[in-house]
Amino acid sequence: MTSPLLQVNKLSKRFETGYKGFKRTYNQALHPVSFVLNRGETLAIVGEAGSGKSTLARILVGAEVRTTGEILFEGEALELRNLKQRCRLIRMIFQDPNTSLNPRLTIGELLDEPLKFNTDLDVQARKAQVIDTLRKVGLLPEHAEFYPHMISEGMKQRVAVARALMLNPKIIIADEALTALDLSVRSQILNLLLKLQKEMGLSYIFVSHNLSIIRHFSDKIMVLHKGEMVEKATTENLFNSPQHEYTQRLLQQQDLLNHKRG
């Protein structure tokens, strides 16, 4: 039996908040969580602000150090791989391309950066990969010469997707990456991500508070509440038969929102 692509065992995070008397005090941002992610699969992590979902995403991508637990990639502890290898395996798409894309760099320079720092490719090979990746996300080679302020919001998010693809990762984590987009652009980016998943065999971890976004996109869902995992199920089971009171409340809130918009 092959091991899952990613296996997370009892991962937790606590932050030091100061002292009470002579005793250190902590905030438990994430209680121990465990899950697996298989090849070509999409896991959604949902919960309101402060649920611990972004903390979990940051630990997985290496931007935050875990307090306890282990992360196994293809059966091997992730920390046994160096930072460059980790950068290649798991990449992130951030919520707002306006803040995550450096306005002083051209799009070509933005996409070249990960290659420059994490590969031994020469200038010509890097340029060829930048152009190839721009095409993959539905942009033109000439967009490499543009600056972020010269393109639309939807195009900026395509650049953010392209940057996540630059090192041919196995897993992409999208942290609220579609929330700020209008509906038509959102569906375009979702379709792009599904197409890339099919072509490249990518696995996704989608971090969101919006259940309607991930309903038609994810294979399974994990629900976090105040740092604790309260429910984990296939997407179909979670929507048809939510077990936890908090999940039921999230679904009701989403139904109300959709009804108001409709």
Automatic annotation (TrEMBL):
Example GO molecular function: ATP binding
Domain ABC transporter residue range list: 6-251
Gene Ontology BP, a term: transmembrane transport
Keywords, ordered alphabetically: ATP-binding, Nucleotide-binding, Transport
Gene3D superfamilies: P-loop containing nucleotide triphosphate hydrolases (3.40.50.300)
PROSITE patterns: ABC_TRANSPORTER_2 (PS50893)
Keyword Metal-binding: no
Domain of life of the native organism: Bacteria
InterPro entries, sorted: AAA+_ATPase (IPR003593), ABC_transp_ATP-bind (IPR050319), ABC_transporter-like_ATP-bd (IPR003439), P-loop_NTPase (IPR027417)
Entries under PANTHER family matching the protein: DIPEPTIDE TRANSPORT ATP-BINDING PROTEIN DPPF, TRANSPORT ATP-BINDING PROTEIN
Name of the protein in its database record: ATP-binding cassette domain-containing protein
Native source organism of the sequence: Shewanella hanedai
